[in-house]
From TrEMBL:
Name of the protein in question: SsrA-binding protein
Pfam families the UniProt entry points to: SmpB (PF01668)
GO cellular component term, pick one: cytosol
Described purpose of this protein according to its UniProt entry: Required for rescue of stalled ribosomes mediated by trans-translation. Binds to transfer-messenger RNA (tmRNA), required for stable association of tmRNA with ribosomes. tmRNA and SmpB together mimic tRNA shape, replacing the anticodon stem-loop with SmpB. tmRNA is encoded by the ssrA gene; the 2 termini fold to resemble tRNA(Ala) and it encodes a 'tag peptide', a short internal open reading frame. During trans-translation Ala-aminoacylated tmRNA acts like a tRNA, entering the A-site of stalled ribosomes, displacing the stalled mRNA.
PANTHER family: SSRA-BINDING PROTEIN (PTHR30308:SF2), TMRNA-BINDING COMPONENT OF TRANS-TRANSLATION TAGGING COMPLEX (PTHR30308)
Entry keyword set: Cytoplasm, RNA-binding
Record organism: Tomitella fengzijianii
GO molecular function terms listed in the Swiss-Prot or TrEMBL record: RNA binding
Biological process, per Gene Ontology: trans-translation; trans-translation-dependent protein tagging
Length: 170
C-alpha cells in the first residue's frame, strides 16, 4: 500500500468510518449528558486544512443559540502552517449546521432550565467535518466525587476478578 503525502500519518478511522480530530475529555466529567446530536460545521478552507493535520482544541468550547441559529464559540483551530494572508482567526465564532426541528428543540430545552450545549468530539465523516454536540446539565462537586468513587470500586472489582481467574491471592 503506497503512502499518501510526504510521510503524513493518518489516524485510523473507528468502526463507523469516523476519523476523530479532537475530543473534549473533561465534558463527561463536568456534565451529565442528556442527549447528543451530530452537527456539521461551517468552516473556511484553511481551517479544514489545519484540521486535516489533526490540530484543534475543544477545551473551552461551547455552543449558543442566537436568532434561531446555533453558534460554536471558543473552539481553537490554529492557523494553517502553509497559509498566507488567507489564514483564518483561530478562535472565531463558527456556525453549526443542524435541522430546523433540532434547533427549535434545542432552543426550548436551553431556555427552560440549566441546560447547556457542550461539544464532545470533532471528527471527519465522509470527508466532512462533524461535531458531536451534547445537551448537558452541569454536575455538582458531590456528583463528581460519587462518579470517581463508583469508577474506583468498579476498577477494584474487575482487578480482583482478574486475580481470582489467574489463581493469585491478593
Amino acid at each position: 500500500m503506497a503512502k499518501k503525502g510526504k510521510g503524513a500519518k493518518k489516524k485510523p478511522a473507528d468502526s463507523e468510518g469516523r476519523r476523530v480530530i479532537a475530543t473534549n475529555r473533561k465534558a463527561r466529567h463536568n456534565y451529565v449528558i442528556l442527549d447528543t446530536y451530530e452537527a456539521g460545521v461551517a468552516l473556511v478552507g484553511t481551517e479544514v486544512k489545519s484540521l486535516r493535520e489533526g490540530k484543534a482544541s475543544l477545551v473551552d468550547a461551547f455552543a449558543t443559540v442566537d436568532d434561531g441559529e446555533v453558534w460554536l464559540r471558543g473552539l481553537h483551530i490554529p492557523e494553517y502552517s502553509h497559509g498566507s494572508w488567507t489564514n483564518h482567526s483561530p478562535r472565531r465564532v463558527r456556525k453549526l449546521l443542524l435541522h430546523r426541528r433540532q434547533i427549535e428543540m434545542l432552543i426550548g430545552k436551553t431556555q427552560e432550565g440549566s441546560l447547556t450545549l457542550v461539544p464532545l468530539s470533532m471528527y471527519f465523516s465522509g470527508g466532512k467535518v462533524k461535531l458531536e454536540l451534547a445537551l448537558a446539565r452541569g454536575k455538582q462537586v458531590y456528583d463528581k466525587r460519587q462518579d470517581i468513587r463508583r469508577r474506583t470500586m468498579e476498577r477494584e472489582v474487575t482487578r480482583e476478578l482478574g486475580r481470582r481467574v489467574k489463581g493469585m491471592r491478593g
